[in-house]
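Task: encode each sequence below as structure tokens.

Item 1
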Amino acid sequence: MKIQYFAPLVAALCVAAGCAADMNYNEYVSESRHGLYLYEDDGMSIKLCLTKKEAPFVADGICGKTGEMTEIIVKTPESCDEVSVTSQSFTGGDLSYLSARDSWYISFGGTLEGDEVKITLTCDGEPAEYTLQSVLTEGVMDCEGALGCVREHAAGLFEGLTENGTLNAEIFVRLLYDGKCYYYVGVCDREGNIMAFLVDGQSGKIIAEREHRI
């Protein structure tokens, strides 16, 4: 999977706009999915997410202490009774089956680097090797850039939630991929109201926004 992207000037301008504010709103990010590796072929779908996240994660409008974690979600073409994952990049282990999502899941502390990750996935004692490719390529902004674009677009929202130099909310920033990179940016206040934005990962354009509750 090789994807080439163009880096428009507007992305850099959005980052600058975010940094121009007196407050550093990045300090209120309780979840930041900053990396995403994918493999999909012949019915096998593997997603590896790199996230800096509050633990335990509670969407209560307050940003707690965060730490780096890696999450792996697997959907197999055939049913399996046991699934495990290993790699030279991490220790791995046994995955748990999530019936609601019809997928297998594991999470552990730490993060990774590089354009690809090689893993060995074992389903019912049958190992197979896979190479997951990073969706981040030249021209895609980072989480701080995406937040900067939302900060510029919805300045009134942030100003309304800011009191005495404190943001009375927490922020979620999640890297997404659907043919190209996007970011979900959610601002959650103390009452559980979330103002969510979908940001184009290249241009920084706000594609959609909506308000919902937890």
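Item 2
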Amino acid sequence: MEAFTEYRGPADYFHGRHGVINPFVRALEHYRTNKRGTTFLIKGPPGSGKTALLSELSEHAKTVGYTVKDNVKPSDFYSPASMAETLGVSHTPHKENAFGFDVKIFRWGQKTESERQSEVVEIIKKSSSGAGLLLVLDEAQHVAELVGRDDVTDRAMSTLNMLHYGKIGQPVILLASGLGTAELAFESLGVSRLEDSCMVRLGPLDSESTHAIIKDHLVHRCGLEFPPQNWIESLAEPTHGWPHHIICYVESAKECLALTNQQPTQIALKHALEVGHKRRVSYYEARAHGISRKQRHLIAELFSDLPSGGTVDKEEILEIMEEQYSEKEALEVFDRALRQGVLDEREDGGFAIPIPSMQRWLVDVHVMGNP
């Protein structure tokens, strides 16, 4: 297996996700018309195709005239110099008061709040126009690292809230993606109440999209002008529509077809499936890195009698962990499993192992003892 196979970034062949793309395009037009903005958040476990989807949404924004800045980072929300560099504008530091920002008072309904008008917001205004500005933030869960850092937190909260509530005075949208903890990270900085249409919980691709992506790879990257249908179906089945797995199997097919001079024999297909399986298992092992075998066993036991996608409560996971570890250690294991995509929070508040084949792998290896 090639260690340098690229799994992140824009997809070579993108299909599906219309349920995300169409509302996003409508949002672009809506907020431009109203000269406002919002936060559009995509969250999901590693390997679900978040970064590729960000790239696709960015291209749609460019098509309708938005300026897209796709390298936003957490420091941009509190550092004027950092935001200016990201947006490609000049910046002359202002003389600041003791708090680093001016304070204005405004009324919202019956409640009076303070709106901190920071230099960062001024820079965003300077860079935006009536045509629209899209700020793209990947790995959004890292904004939580800004919490508890004195005036850094205040500045970041000010910027994020003005973006979220459309107070920039221009159509500016923050498009963010991250792990399941990204929503909580934003909430820790005062950004809550995301509209349902602006919150996406990313799951697997549908069957039609999975087949289309595999076919494109077989044609354009593997040299098969007319790829056999059984190749497409056989390669699609073990992926469960998971974007990372699709790439595992099409890369394996490319390597195996090169050995047969692009002849799609059954032996080559069998070999491709075997190599793809090894890549897939390597991915699971990487996701579980830092979680000991004993800890994996405890998690897997909870899911051993559940169907694919079955959920358990956070309290159940912590309870079984605390039988062997301290409360602090149990919470650290839970947080790591969530952060690394071994667990994924579902809409009803339960937690599942996000990929059916990952659930089977955990149970087979760490409960049943089958390697």
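Check on item 2: The longest strand covers residues 102-108. The longest helix spans residues 266-287.
End of task.
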